[in-house]
Model the fold of this input.
Amino acid sequence: MKLASLKQGRDGRLIVVSRDLKSAVEVPHIAGTLQQALDLWAETEPKLQDVYQQLNQQSSDLAGVFEFRPQDCASPLPRAYQWADGSAYVNHVELVRKARNSEVPDSFWTDPLMYQGGSDSFIGPCDDIALGSEEWGIDFEAEIAVVTDDVPMGVPEDQAAKHIQLLMLVNDVSLRGLIPAELAKGFGFFQSKPSSSFSPVAVTPDELGPAWENSKVHLPLNVDYNRQPFGRANAGQDMTFNFARLVSHAAHTRPLSAGTIIGSGTVSNKQNTEHGSAISDGGVGYSCIAEVRMIETINTGAAKTSFMHFGDQVHIEMLDSDGQSIFGAIDQTVVEYKGHQS
Amino acid sequence: MKLASLKQGRDGRLIVVSRDLKSAVEVPHIAGTLQQALDLWAETEPKLQDVYQQLNQQSSDLAGVFEFRPQDCASPLPRAYQWADGSAYVNHVELVRKARNSEVPDSFWTDPLMYQGGSDSFIGPCDDIALGSEEWGIDFEAEIAVVTDDVPMGVPEDQAAKHIQLLMLVNDVSLRGLIPAELAKGFGFFQSKPSSSFSPVAVTPDELGPAWENSKVHLPLNVDYNRQPFGRANAGQDMTFNFARLVSHAAHTRPLSAGTIIGSGTVSNKQNTEHGSAISDGGVGYSCIAEVRMIETINTGAAKTSFMHFGDQVHIEMLDSDGQSIFGAIDQTVVEYKGHQS
Done:
């Protein structure tokens, strides 16, 4: 099943989207918003599935079907009660820490990294990313995320997978220039992680077929930067902690409420090399600029790719084995925010 | 104006509470939940104020008035889209860092500390705090928090105060035993900050009269631990960053959505000494156990007060100059969570 939220008010208007992303239909008789659907998921999910089947079969019983347009969408949850982002691809962690000349402790391979993100103001999948200054070191991070139903505190890993109800793609916008000072304060990323954006469509795990295995998505994550291929890393490879583990980690000391979003962290492959290689070097590339800069530094002594300038564009999408887009595309341009004061 | 949320469903049922906290009335014709009221604050606030005036005047025009009972309340926002907690009392920061043998950088006096907290599962003000293990080093932290309306990204400090719509008290439950390992990972407190709780009642700033000045609350915060006075620190003293500054800090790289909660951090006074002193030593005491343990360590070489055991109880309240409770009391007991797996 595929779900999205048309832009409307603070929480959007829930729609069911056809498997081929061509058509959609509103479902106000089931739930007005995706959060409302998740709040009563056991009750709403089978009803939404029925609509989804009818939509895919182009049933004449289904009234009000319209053309699906990703640019009319907010993020599936335009605001959420929780966004907690892991960093499950330790290759990414190794690279960004190398850039700061810090080592990866052994514990990072056994104890997940996770930060609490801001969840009150997500950006739409095709909306501009407005930020106050290029000096902040604007970067994208292409990731996968899951949405859970209610998860009890202390859920063990082997019972966590069943709480994963939806999957999405993420652009976890990062401000590399602000990260070192924020992390030095010891309280996490706060100002260095502005509003994130998610794919137009959230899908139930069964939509991935055999590509959803062991709570990982075994497909390449396509990242294009200014319309050039930039990353094709396989999200199923080098994922040290799967989503069941990340959900269990998040719920260690508290319950998670329905609609909690848990992210994978930047997808990153080692590609049988020390840290992978760029597409231009024959590799699968990267899912953020910071990694490319580090590879450039390792290979040539200096980074040559700059962080994003106003006008730069990032496109994040995942295709199934038939080349069909699963989630629709995150397609965003960074622009200057004019209201900023300092 | 004073507002609260009766326990009902995920978001509670909004009620207006009389100034003396004795009576209350539902307002479904204005807003069903506090979040709904905040989403349309410019429209709902004057209507809620009208009800509040009638309630205080015991107007016979007002139907459905009932006795207010804090134990029937959830936190004013039972779940929220954002909970960001500052650490504006740098004396607290100095003390807890001394306990870890780390210095306070000069920048901590000019650049606020702030972490993103989990906001999806707040605990009711009179509800038990259920946690998996005493080994986690369970502590309370008594704080003040503000609730904002929509705040634009980049709002300067001098325009931030007007976005503060409500005030509450907070018990920012902290797991001292988990904090060092979490902070060492560099991603913030995550597992070491379980669900927080807030006072039964949220109040508009005008309720504080002259005690609300320069975006600070100039009143003692009363903390009793196992029914003994533990802290009477004045929230208006030694607050290095006022709430306007904290809101501006939170909004530096992103907008804040209506219903955002911004915390002060643990209220802590220096009391013309190096770091203050306990009530039993004639001082105003502390707002968390960690500070007392540090003072004990400084004074005697070892901490003697242990962190909370199952059955221990904390009471947090603020009285106005007439001795009347402003927010009602947070009154909670720590109990063992039986569902925890590890």
The radius of gyration of chain A is 19 Å. DSSP finds seven helices and 21 strands in chain A. The first strand of chain A starts at residue 2 and ends at 6. Chain A touches chain B through 60 residues (CB under 8 Å).
